[in-house]
Write a structure and sequence with these properties.
Radius of gyration: 20 Å
Distance between the termini: 31 Å
Largest sheet: 7 strands, mixed
CATH class: Alpha Beta
CATH architecture: 2-Layer Sandwich
Mean pLDDT: 90
């Protein structure tokens, strides 16, 4: 059982060619697929402007993208899988990692922010959670994730080398402590880099061999583009380029393509993200989220306790 149980995922049996994929491509680096997506965000920016008139904190496009990404993962749950030591796991949470700077200067400290989300979160809820977590991370006290990273960075070189080797060994054989999985920035659904916030276009991000992240997302700067409309006329629109680095062993290209269409549709029609999503027991069972089990199972556990 040591190879099949993890604190952050449920073992998934695979059949056919997918079962062979980790043996053909054992590492994430050789399994990488890159994809570039251009999204019209004009409607999202209009919604953000309207919401900010009433919000007690600033809502940004990053919040809209994050909300659409979470919503898509809920609807396309295979994206929340990962490969570890030739085996497949369904992640038992929806978590995102991103980097924020305390100040927009070259010397300013970068802080890692790792967050868990509910599958039911709306745009406003996602925005508030991100705002509160970033505020806490930027405070003198900082957050748990950054404190753990800071602690590792202060270890002398020989000990750090041994520590990282031990961490990789424990992760490989699924004996990694739960606290390390939750507090280090290598064990999330996706790593999102908001490169556009510093005014440059999105690069294609590298993958990490350490940890279980199979999806890196880089969001570029917002720019103007003249777009041809259905009636043949042209209109100036606001667009952004998003680049994806994906572990091809996790899901096939058709599944990913449909997921990217969902993200694009949500961002171009952002009002949908203000509404609560309805999930069936079957969907919750497929997601295998630890904190959000199917309602039938929740009722069964409550009755057993009584």
């Amino acid at each position: 059982m040591i190879l099949k149980y993890r604190p952050d995922g449920t073992y998934i049996k695979q059949k056919g060619f997918f079962r062979l994929m980790p043996y053909i491509m054992p590492t994430r680096s050789e399994s990488t697929i890159f994809f570039e997506q251009e999204i019209d965000i004009t409607n999202s920016l209009a919604l953000i402007e309207r919401l900010n008139q009433e919000s007690n904190h600033k809502i940004t496009f990053f919040h809209v993208y994050m909300a659409s990404c979470i919503r898509t993962i809920v609807n396309r749950p295979k994206l929340n899988r990962f490969v570890n030591n030739y085996r497949y796991f369904q992640r038992n949470n929806i978590s995102m990692n991103f980097v924020a700077k305390k100040e927009l200067t070259d010397e300013a400290e970068e802080i890692n922010v790792t967050m868990k989300f509910s599958p039911y979160d709306t745009l406003l809820e996602v925005s508030e959670k991100i705002h509160n977590e970033v505020y806490k991370a930027k405070s003198p006290k900082g957050n748990v994730n950054q404190r753990d990273v800071d602690l590792l960075s202060k270890i002398p070189h020989p000990i750090l080398k041994f520590t990282m080797g031990l961490l990789k060994f424990c992760n490989k054989y699924n004996i990694i402590p739960k606290a390390m999985v939750e507090n280090l920035p290598f064990f999330t659904t996706a790593f999102i880099a908001n490169i556009g916030s510093i005014g440059i276009d999105a690069p294609f991000h590298h993958n990490f061999e350490l940890g279980t992240i199979g999806l890196f997302i880089a969001i570029g700067k917002i720019r103007d583009k003249e777009v041809k409309l259905a009636d043949g006329s042209y209109q100036n629109r606001k667009v952004v380029t998003v680049n994806y680095t994906h572990d091809d062993r996790v899901v096939d290209g058709v599944y990913c393509a449909k997921a990217l269409k969902m993200i694009k549709d949500d961002i171009q029609n952002p009002e949908k993200l203000l509404e609560k999503i309805e999930l069936t027991d079957k969907q919750l069972e497929y997601l295998k989220l630890k904190d959000f089990p199917p309602k039938s199972k929740s009722k069964k556990k409550k009755s057993e306790k009584k």
